Here is the input.
Amino acid sequence: MHASWQSSSLVLALLAGPMVLPVSAEKVVGAYIFSRHGDRTAKVLKNTELTDRGYEEVYQSGSYWHDRYIAANSSLQIEGISEKIVKLSQISASTPSDDVLQNSAIALLQGIYPPVGSAAQETLADGSIAKAPLNGYQLIPLSLLDSGAGSEDNTWLQDATGCQNAAVSSNNYYSSSLYNGLLDSTKDFYQSLSPMLNSTFESKDMSFKNAYTIFDYLNVAYIHNTTNTPTADQLEKLLQLANIEQYNLAYNSTEPVRAIAGSQLAGEVLEALNNTITSQGKTKLNIQLGSYGTFLSYFGLAQLPAADVNFTGVPDYASSMSWELVTDSTSDEFPDPSDIHVRFLFHNGTIASGDSPQEYALFNETSTSISWTDFVAKTKEFAITSDEDWCRACGNSDGQCQSVSSSDSGDASSQSASGHDGGVSRPVAGVIGAMVTLAVILGLEALLLAVGGFRIAKKQKASASAAAVAAHDVAENKAASKA
Here is the structure.
């Protein structure tokens, strides 16, 4: 995210001992964790893969969540959850069908429920002992989601949503004064990076239109390469520009359909937490992996930039957020919904040993704790809770949306896309924190050093017409042809 939340320079180490957690009089009766994947190869090169560093990052964050929600000595342990050997009826894990996200999900789950050693063995009828392999490695099934499939091979976030109206809405950003002003004012900066980019990008593609794709490519180089890398100041400016571009593509207050990924996540969180309550705590912990675009969309919809302007920035690798169901009830019975509150937490990047997520107020509230009733009501204002809701909001008529009438789809998509009555064609009016970020960028310009004549070592050269254009033009034409 923004500089104050960046954690890319963290020295990663596996947890050496128990996490020291805050003392709380409240009981946690359920939780939903949403996590970004760990360090990976660059999107623009395609066939993205989770790196060993990324595996370690997500595993370490998973270890924190174990110490918070599972460990017997935690004051925030989820009531009644199995402390050592996982009970599959208590936990649910899901991820889009994507190599990086699926592998990250496995790493996160390994941290949450680590191997149990000799406890994973049984004595058979003949007296022999069967031992589980890999030191009692715990098997937790992953449900694969259609939404977000192939996220880490898509250089444009709306390609992974499949939502027509969201693609049209995001493309509206390219007609905004904010976009065009930055496209012009940053032209020389992006061209100055050509010695590091010209093995993968054509000169015409080195611009603010590909802000995230370029940042991602050079950020991977900064982490993994020893030569042909940007300076810290250059990388910081690239990040700030990518933050502006991506937040505006993921969310706009006057066109809620642009944040379709966040709306879907909100619906999934609502359904899962409601299941915990209606089942009287039989289901306890839900885990989902996803991409940064889903984070950004949800940040905007839940009005989190009002709590901290950094919520307008791209979250770092292995970032995670959690919605906790908490109660002050002293009864041994599962609490009544009226006694349950929701607490939202977020941590940017890997949760290092001794660190912990921070609580933030949702929906521009003054308190970081919101009643379950209010959480449901406010979430339902933007959550997608069914296939029919999604089809109507997105205006899609193929696949699973064929059964939704075209007239209903047209009416609902127009209303959802605009939030009022203006359709999806209006340009972006601006977003919370965008001008603050712009001011930071302008201040950084004076600090930038001239780029040397280096070149990043090639891993897989992308074609000039496909990978380097960051898929924006393809999506724009696709959306226009379907509109």
Q: What stands out?
A: The chain has three domains: 3-153+259-383, 157-253+426-482, 388-418. Residues 263 and 382 are 6 Å apart (CA to CA). Residues 157-253+426-482 form one domain.
